[in-house]
Q: What sequence folds into this?
């Protein structure tokens, strides 16, 4: 297997930029959640500032940016949110 498919759930600013709540990505084997965030931010420069403060979820557990994904995983990008 040279590629894996993962579902990326988008919240807050990520969701606003893409105009949708989730994206299916096909990625090279060994791709990390941090690299997925890089890919998501690339077409939207305004998201770059969020990369340093985004938390990552993988299959309902928080993980660090260096965690690799596997076929069928669900990745969640959670930027800081403000509200009132």
A:
């Amino acid at each position: 297997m040279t590629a894996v498919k993962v579902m990326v759930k988008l919240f807050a600013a990520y969701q606003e930029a893409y105009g949708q709540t989730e994206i299916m990505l096909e990625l090279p084997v060994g791709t990390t959640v941090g690299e997925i965030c890089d890919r998501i931010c690339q077409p939207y420069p305004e998201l770059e500032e969020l990369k340093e403060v985004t938390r990552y979820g993988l299959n309902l557990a928080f993980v660090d940016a260096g965690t690799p994904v596997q076929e069928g995983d669900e990745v969640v990008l959670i930027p800081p949110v403000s509200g009132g």
